[in-house]
Design brief:
heterotrimer; A mainly alpha (291); B alpha/beta (416); C mainly alpha (315); B: 416 residues; Rossmann fold; 2 domains; seven-stranded mixed sheet; five-stranded parallel sheet; 13 helices; 18% strand; C: 315 residues; mainly alpha; ABC transporter involved in vitamin B12 uptake, BtuC; two-stranded antiparallel sheet
Chain lengths: 291, 416, 315
């Protein structure tokens, strides 16, 4: 039906798109794995990070790759503060309340952006976006390849963090057994906030890598929320390898179902996978045993 | 589950409080808070209600529409206001539809009770359809701006007018122009690819085009719908590259249009031309500025100004100076507010029925659109039509029909 | 049982108060406000049955609402059904979708966040399908012809719509009251508190949950039917998009989940909040919604059990 050329090209492109999904999911899966909260403000955070990259470029001439040194750390702090001083106190530890709090935060952020920066679409154009790497049947824009490499690097960094550092061990301890961790002297509130902060920083990394080939508006995050959740569930909530593999896999699924069913109907490809995974393998491909 | 033990109040008192709140809201609504003025406008100001999506997914379009509307109102006010009413000023009252029909209806009802003489706006077909139902019930005229659904006019509703063309008019003209252009340049375009957003206007246009194009000798080799928003157009670019259409016809909103055009350019899709029908970015200066290379040669058949009119040129320079992009929402709302003001002028009052009558008999030519004087039949302006533009260099030129052209058309477009 | 009696008393007073509103309100805008308020209370109550009493949070309640709206539109437009007959089919269809999703989800043991996400996924699947299918109007959506008349369930006078939605809301409230006093309701709440313990006690949790989701879905579909008759228009975003899903959960959660009055209080407060912020800050886009979000957080800070927390000394 489709010649192998197109299929390969589409698959390769799907992988590059999936890399961005993976990055977003890495943050979300850490937040879910440790705090057990579904962060409704995920898309809004991505949008804010995109604006940060945009303004850094427009006002200070900083390109998005250099911004990787600025925006993620800043968003780490933002995330830490949000969790420690807003979500935790207002959430009272109940899942439902936390959901509403993150929903409230997303409403505030979306409209803050609209109020401050209007609804005009912002674009940046960097020289790297015009560079194309030939790969036989197709040519891929350089920023996309950078995205793939970056997501693997970030995934590795995550793994190192989680397995080789004390912080990582503390995070894993809290994720597995909250009360026990507290008993051995780990400040659970601090760990929660650290996790949320790291997760938010991840989203900021995704934003830096996304902006050369995309755009910013106050509503830009909406389109990423559902796919991020799907990636997290597919990969297994709390698994970083899962988020990486899941993201790449979904990027390809999305590309194939778009090819086969058309871009509109093809959207169900991702959601059907989502439903099937939820029903038959809710722990995802790599998830831990459910608590 | 943690309990909230901080509010140990006596049980009966708060229950009374609930009923008090219900009662208070009920009283407020009986008194008509927040609407205060009953009846029509005073002789000092005439109010026009702008039903625009200022928040939600169409926030950009609503904001642009208000720019046009404000320019028109300010212009007339500066020139002395409504002469037939002794210099009464025009006041625009914004009703944010939040890109949702419920809010559009609510705002129409609210503003109808605040002495609005008529409405302008809608923007999206779903919003316009429901808003006009409400305005008709309230017997207030409603001038629809950009919404193209053919069902907006012709429902027999009171006071619904559309200055700009609907689906049918747009596709008829777009196809006719395409055939004429193609015939005049040696019939080089034979195969067509349709790329459209899967919402109301995109899929409607695509369906009509799909039916009509074969009748004019074109072969449709590809028909690609995509959702708004779409994150990545590489796949679509690849599909287009492999089906090698002579002509690509995109119909979508601004952001997707930009991504699509960039993808076509980057994937080096061989084509003879891009001929949009209501292409969101194709006649947008922002696109021309920011992605000039990808924009070269793109043609659009869309709402556009009549470049010959002095008023149009003044509008363009005002927008330039204010650094606001000229988009169709600006022109349509500018023209519609001028039309409304003309009707108020002819009616000599802010009375809704008089304005309705004035619109029914209107022969207004003070707008900036290439339509000639208005003539509304069943609410639709008969002379309405889109015209063809093309991006050449750093400008959006009008290229067809010849009497409006500001530059010579380049068709087909040499592969760049 | 005195709690039940008290709640019934309050409900009766409330209903009486609501029923006389049209006698005092002449403004179309305010009539519309009350209609939409009750509409949101209905949707909220439908969510409340499953999420408040049953503890099964759904993030995609629009899937039931949209089915109600679309099916009634399709029945009238494509099959020439009378509006009332179409409504019955639509409500049945909504319940059917509830059974389908419930059977799948509960059979495979989905709980908590997993269940919530699966409802969201189903809503999205339905949204994409109706948007791509000509039969359901594809991108354009479904439009009902304007034909006021009792037989068409369309009323020129908005007050009649008000009474219609009032009746529907009363029915939904009746269901909630029934939950408060019936064995089924007790089982449902037991499942919410501790599903495994409930199972150990011999409760057929699968059947109870299935019944709850079917009832919840049918009620939401009823809201969908009303919406269609009132606005005469629905598209994939309105019907199956996140907006209605968020309203469905926000209303009862803010008002007080698992209570009969919660959805009313939630709908009232959110409605008033929305109008107040629009009135005071409507000029600059975004400002009023930001205020809405901030006020939402403030309510969560001080009333974590919803506004019903103001009215109860204990949980």
């Amino acid at each position: 039906m489709f010649d192998i050329g197109i299929l390969t090209a589409v698959t390769l492109n799907g992988l590059t798109v999936g890399a961005i999904y993976a990055l977003g999911a890495l943050g979300l899966t850490l937040i879910y794995g440790v705090l057990h909260i579904i962060n409704f403000a995920h898309g809004s955070t991505l949008m804010m990070a995109l604006y940060a990259c945009f303004f850094l470029h427009q006002r200070a001439g900083v390109d998005p790759y250099t911004a990787l040194l600025i925006v993620p750390p800043a968003f780490f702090v933002l995330g830490y503060g949000l969790q420690r001083y807003l979500i935790a106190p207002l959430g009272f530890g109940k899942d439902i309340n936390v959901l509403l709090v993150t929903l409230g935060i997303s409403i505030i952020l979306d409209n803050l952006a609209l109020y401050l920066w209007t609804s005009n679409t912002r674009n940046i154009d960097i020289p790297q976006a015009q560079v194309f790497i030939e790969m036989g049947v197709t040519s891929l824009a350089l920023p996309k390849l950078i995205g793939v490499v970056a997501s693997i690097v970030v995934g590795l960094l995550f793994w190192l963090l989680m397995t080789q550092t004390d912080l990582g061990k503390a995070i894993r301890a809290v994720a597995r057994e909250r009360r026990g961790a507290r008993i051995v002297g780990i400040s659970v509130d601090h760990i929660f906030a650290m996790s949320f902060g790291i997760g938010t920083a991840c989203i900021a990394v995704a934003a830096c890598l996304l902006i050369p080939t995309y755009y910013v508006t106050p509503k830009v995050g909406d389109g990423f929320v559902l796919i991020a959740f799907t990636t997290v569930v597919l990969g297994g909530m709390g698994s970083f390898i899962g988020a990486l593999v899941g993201g790449l896999f979904l990027g390809v699924v999305e590309a194939w179902s778009g090819l086969w069913l058309g871009e509109s109907l093809g959207q169900i490809g991702v959601f059907i996978i989502f439903i099937l995974v939820l029903l038959f393998k809710p722990n995802g491909l790599f998830g831990q045993r459910s608590t | 589950m943690s309990e909230d033990k901080r509010n140990p109040t006596s049980v009966n008192q708060p229950r009374r409080r609930l009923l008090q709140v219900v009662g208070a809201t009920g009283a407020a609504s009986a008194l008509g808070f927040p609407s205060v003025s009953f009846g029509q406008a005073s002789t000092r100001t005439v109010k026009i209600g702008m039903i625009q999506p200022m928040t939600g997914m169409f926030a950009y379009n609503g904001a642009q529409g208000m720019v046009g509307a404000k320019l028109a109102a300010d212009e007339i006010n500066a020139a002395g206001g409504i002469r037939s009413m002794g210099g009464a000023k025009i006041e625009l009252v914004i009703g944010d539809s939040q890109s949702k029909p419920e809010a559009a209806v609510s705002e129409v009802d609210k503003l109808s009770e605040q002495g609005i003489s008529c409405f302008v706006g809608g923007y999206a077909s779903g919003l316009a359809l429901t808003a006009t139902q409400a305005s008709a019930r309230n017997k207030v005229p409603f001038l629809v701006d950009g919404a193209v659904s053919d069902q907006i006019t012709g429902r027999g509703l009171y006071g619904v007018f559309r200055l700009a063309p609907g689906f049918k008019q747009i596709t008829d003209v777009a196809l006719q122009n395409l055939s004429t252009i193609n015939d005049a340049t040696g019939k080089q375009v034979k195969t067509v690819a349709l790329v459209f957003e899967d919402g109301a206007f995109g899929s409607g246009l695509a369906k009509t085009l799909a039916g009509e194009l074969p009748k004019r000798g074109f072969e449709i080799v590809e028909s690609i719908g995509f959702p708004t928003p779409t994150r990545d157009f590489t796949n679509i670019g690849l599909k287009l590259r492999s089906s090698k259409p002579d002509l690509i016809i995109p119909s979508c909103y601004l952001n997707e249009y930009v991504l699509l055009a960039r993808s076509i350019h980057q994937n080096k899709v061989p084509k003879k031309a891009i001929y949009s029908v209501i292409g969101g970015g194709a006649s947008n200066m922002k696109f021309v500025r920011e992605f000039n290379a990808a924009a070269q040669g793109i043609m659009d058949c869309n709402h556009w100004i009549d470049p010959r009119k002095a008023r149009s040129q003044r509008l363009v320079s005002t927008l330039d100076a204010a650094k606001v992009d000229l988009t169709y929402e600006v022109l349509l709302n500018y023209s519609n507010v001028l039309l409304a003001i003309d009707a108020i002028e002819k009616a000599g009052s802010g009375d809704r029925e008089k304005i309705n009558q004035a619109l029914l008999n209107s022969t207004f030519d003070g707008h900036v659109m290439p339509y000639g004087p208005t003539k509304f039949v069943n609410g639709q302006n008969e002379g309405a039509r889109p015209i063809n533009t093309q991006i050449q260099g750093m400008k959006v030129e009008v290229v067809f029909p010849a009497e409006y052209a500001t530059a010579k058309m380049i068709f087909p477009v040499p592969l760049g | 049982m005195t709690n039940m009696k008290r709640q019934t008393q309050v409900m009766l007073v409330l209903i009486l108060a609501l029923a006389v509103i049209p006698l005092f309100v002449s403004s179309k805008f305010w009539m519309g406000f009350w209609v939409m308020l009750l509409f949101h209370a209905l949707i909220g109550q439908s969510w409340n049955i499953l999420g408040g009493y049953g503890g099964q949070t759904s993030y995609g309640h629009a899937v039931f609402f949209g089915t109600g709206a679309y099916v009634t539109a399709v029945m009238q437009t494509h099959f020439g059904f009378n509006a009332w007959a179409a409504a019955l089919v639509a409500i049945g269809a909504g319940g059917g979708v509830g059974l389908f999703i419930g059977a799948l989800s509960f059979r495979y043991g989905l709980r908590g966040s997993y269940f919530a996400l699966v409802t969201l996924a189903f809503a999205e699947v339905f949204r994409v399908i109706v948007n791509s299918w000509d039969f359901t109007g594809s991108g354009f959506g479904m439009l009902l012809a304007l034909k006021p008349g009792l037989a068409n369930m369309q009323f020129a006078d908005r007050q009649l719509f008000f009474y219609l939605i009032l009746v529907l809301t009363i029915i939904a409230t009746g269901v909630a009251l029934w939950l408060e006093s019936s064995r089924f309701g007790a089982h449902l709440v037991a499942i919410r508190e501790n599903e495994d313990a409930a199972k150990a006690l011999g409760i057929n949790t699968f059947k109870v949950k299935l019944r709850a989701i079917a009832i919840s879905a049918a009620l939401a579909a009823t809201g969908g039917v009303f919406y269609m008759q009132y606005f005469l228009f629905v598209d994939s975003h309105i019907g199956y998009g996140p907006s209605m899903s968020i309203s469905a959960l926000l209303v009862p959660l803010i008002g007080g989940p698992g209570t009969v009055l919660g959805p009313f209080i939630g709908a009232l407060s959110l409605g008033v909040l929305s109008e107040v912020t629009k009135h005071t800050m409507g000029e600059t886009p975004g400002a009023n919604l930001m205020a809405y979000g901030v006020l939402l957080l403030i309510v969560l800070r001080f009333l974590p059990n919803g506004l019903m927390g103001l009215f109860r000394g204990r949980s």
